[in-house]
Write a structure and sequence with these properties.
N-(1-d-carboxylethyl)-l-norvaline Dehydrogenase, domain 2, alpha/beta, Rossmann fold
Length: 308
């Protein structure tokens, strides 16, 4: 008997963190009605709305608020900020079994190493998230496409299994044989644009300023030198390409760090700018401008935005 929706076994998916990234993927996966989805959250909600240019999604959503009630699932999608990984440990420990795959929908690099203490024998699947998400309310998020793809994964069995998970959805996944270079390309933009927009307390329109572009270009030159020393195959004009990618994002979109600064939340600077500076130290690559940016962003982390 050929496989069809009726006779394919439904997979179980737990989404840890229903914010801007987790809310979008939860809504998109719910539409295909192929999975049993549970959102692991602090406060329960009954329905989730995803605003999209091609039309909104509104779906019922099952939530769980107590890690003690969680059971192993086929897939865990970890959508928290990197600094909240340890705080998600109780969820991960309960949700992971030896056959579980854990997709890290997080910024930065070193996903597998970061999650290793919490997932036991589960398989970690690093991903690069390209789409722009904005949390409008606990039960409402906005999706903006960030480029030709929504995700990139390594072109191996684990990465291909994540791509298969999204078959039939509107999400586009790139399976790449050089995941490290793609991860560094994303990190370049995040390590510079996120803190700059957070410190300026402005959305992406701030990068239309020539003086801000000049500053970002100098910061990106330092970051690209670190990436090359770390083994990423970055082009000679990679910083200029990064500026072009940044300018392709709608000016009314905002970085995750900008939204956290506006809300007075801690900033994800250690996994982004901090990671580049730390690797610069390891590889002997000087990063004076990035160090200054890191210091200022650390000082702003968790504080209220500047009064304009």
């Amino acid at each position: 008997m050929p496989p069809n929706v009726a006779n394919i076994e439904r997979k179980s998916i737990a989404i840890v963190g229903l914010g801007s990234i987790g809310g979008v993927i939860a809504g998109v996966l719910s539409v295909v009605d192929r999975y049993d989805i549970i959102a692991c959250v602090r406060h329960p909600i009954e329905r989730l709305t995803v605003e999209r240019p091609e039309g909104g999604i509104e779906v019922p959503i099952s939530t769980l608020t107590d890690p003690a009630l969680a059971r192993p699932v086929d897939w865990v999608l970890l959508c928290t900020k990197t600094q909240d990984t340890a705080a998600s440990g109780a969820w991960l420990t309960r949700l992971c079994g030896e056959r579980t795959r854990v997709a890290a929908l997080q910024n930065g690099i070193g996903h597998a190493e970061r999650l290793a203490p919490f997932v036991g024998d589960a398989t970690v699947v690093p991903t690069i998230v390209y789409y722009n998400g904005e949390r409008l309310a606990p039960d409402r998020v906005r999706y903006r496409r960030g480029g030709d793809y929504d995700f990139a994964v390594s072109d191996d069995a684990a990465g291909q299994s994540f791509a298969a998970l999204l078959d039939g959805t509107s999400m586009r996944v790139l399976c790449s044989g050089d995941f490290k270079t793609l991860a560094w390309r994303k990190l370049l933009v995040n390590a510079v644009a996120n803190p700059v927009s957070a410190l300026a307390v402005q959305r992406n329109a701030v990068f239309r300023r020539e003086d801000v572009q000049s500053l970002c270009l100098a910061l990106l030159e330092e970051a690209a030198a670190v990436g090359r020393a770390d083994g990423a195959q970055l082009a000679a004009d990679e910083p200029a390409q990064s500026i072009a990618r940044l300018l392709a994002i709608p000016p009314d979109a905002g970085s995750s760090m900008y939204f956290d600064r506006v809300a007075g939340r801690p900033l994800e600077v250690e996994a982004l700018t901090g990671a580049v500076v730390a690797l610069g130290e390891r590889h002997g690559v000087p990063t004076p401008l990035l160090r200054m940016l890191l210091t200022l962003t650390r000082a702003a982390s968790g504080g209220m935005p500047a009064v304009s």
